[in-house]
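Sharing a chain and its predicted structure for anyone who wants a worked example. Both blocks are below, sequence first, tokens second.
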Amino acid sequence: MPSAYRKPRLLIAYNASGSFIDPADADRISEDAVQDEVASVLQAAERLGYPAEMLAVSDIAEDIKRIGDFRPDVVVNLCEGFRGVARDEMHMAGLWELMRLPYTGNSALSLGLSQDKVLCKRLFESRKIHTPPYQVFRDVPHSTYLKFPVIAKPAMEDASLGVTQQSVTDDFGTLQSIVRRLIDKYRQPVLVEQYIAGRELNVSILDNPEPGVLAVGEIDFSRIPEGYQAITSYEAKWMPDHPLYARTPALYPARIDLDLRERLCDAALQVYRLLGGRDYGRVDTRVDAAGRIYVLEYNPNPDISMEAGYVKALQAAGLSYGTFVEILIQNALKRSGNGQHQGDSAR
């Protein structure tokens, strides 16, 4: 007979930055921020009565041994890369799949697709989803057919890495310098897009159990100092001492009319399904003065620390953080075929 019901064991896995990123490199700020997510999830799990252990992934062989000793029922996957490399985010999800461990969040395939901004844009175009005109450069450009101003960013990073106030320019010579700097630092192609002046709106999605929109949010640029670009740059997103950090709040729900909200939700759900979104994610857009929507990217497994925009979307939808964590755990268990967990002998 099956043993008495017990709560599933959770392994909260996240990326250890450690010595893998230069402490003087500002990019480390976003890498270290995952610890706030871990603390939020751990507190919620404990309140829900789940036995949980944390694992800062840094040595695959040693980590696999620890996982085997703990024998988790679900991995709460908060890994955003491996040893400071964001492009390895998909491989961490792939590890849980190879180990046949149910895990929360987007699949390895979706994480990999979403990381590749150029491939995503081609997929958007194939489905007639509007996205800003773009070019990809693997070296310093000699020309461009894009209309200025433009914005340049690494083609395979997330968390606004490489996107600074200097990323927007209306001068070709400056664009060449930006592309050279990004290639030298990130060792990958550079995506250059036509800059879309207007509003920055994002759509948060949750599978409960089917994909649904929690809320539409907006980055409020109304209080940025003169001379700054109205973009969600790395400084605005991650650097508390920067003038833009406190002056670019995320507003939930966004103050938009019903027609725009419906069009944003339709576009976001189309993107979510196209890229195989799972459990939770966020679609980022720009909307110009004529109300045209341009999809920038899909953000799988967005930041879920207590101050993050996704948590504000949960609050706007009337869902508690604990309910959100419970939904993620139950979704993972259902994918494994276990549903409500009944103990070792029921597996």
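Comments welcome. Residues 60 and 176 are 39 Å apart (CA to CA).
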